[in-house]
Write a structure and sequence with these properties.
Blueprint: E1 3-8, H1 25-43, E2 48-52, H2 55-63, E3 67-70, H3 75-89, E4 94-98, E5 117-121, E6 128-134, H4 147-158, E7 162-164, H5 177-189
Parallel strand pairs: 1-2, 1-4, 2-3, 5-7
Antiparallel strand pairs: 4-6, 5-6
Length: about 190
């Protein structure tokens, strides 16, 4: 299996805007960078495709050994599609899509299964934090609110072999102040 990891990354200066009531601008930017660095490190040894529109993010991604894909399609689904098509053109036969805001990720090695779709929901079973699938299949992306159920419906509609992986580390993304509290709680539990 020739795996590629696709990570869409917003400008670090505007990332995590929903956390503005809990963190200042500099704190949100630092958090976004730190999480994205963890995601790239967790992808090793697979090649990483960072999809972005921001020059600072493009430079940062190149400095971290990722291939930069300039987003040309609209929205998050478009960004992921752009990265997916580039990875496929470069010979990947399986892609893993990961959000850049996974603070507890250490590896993705246990996620991809050759010939199958793997869905990793967020801790609320609402979003899809990680999605792994064969690169050549016909599949419509449904990122946004309720993406986990929408992606599950997509695999069922298409009759694709799949499984759902509940992983406590991959399930925590950072969208709300409650997510920050959960991260803090988990960090305090870790010796």
């Amino acid at each position: 299996m020739l795996l590629a990891v696709i990570v869409p990354v917003k400008s670090f200066t505007v990332a995590k805007g929903r956390l503005a009531t809990a963190l200042g601008d500099a704190e949100r930017e630092a958090l976004a960078r730190t999480c994205a660095e963890r995601v790239i490190a967790a992808a090793a040894p697979a090649p990483v495709y960072v999809v972005c529109t921001d020059d600072d993010v493009a430079s940062w991604a190149a400095d971290h050994g990722a291939q930069v894909v300039r987003q040309t399609s609209a929205g998050l689904n478009g960004a992921i599609h752009d990265g997916w098509m580039q990875a496929r053109a470069d010979g990947a036969d399986h892609v893993l899509i990961a959000h850049a805001d996974l603070p507890l990720v250490t590896t993705f090695a246990h996620v991809p299964v050759e010939g199958e779709v793997t869905l990793v929901p967020d801790r609320h079973n609402d979003g899809t934090n990680v999605l792994s699938l064969p690169a050549g299949i016909d599949f419509v992306l449904h990122y946004g609110p309720g993406s986990f159920v929408a992606h599950l419906e997509e695999v069922n509609l298409r009759g694709l072999p799949h499984h759902v992986l509940h992983d406590v580390n991959l399930a925590l993304d950072l969208d709300t102040a409650d997510d920050l509290h959960e991260l803090d709680r988990r960090n305090k539990e870790t010796p």
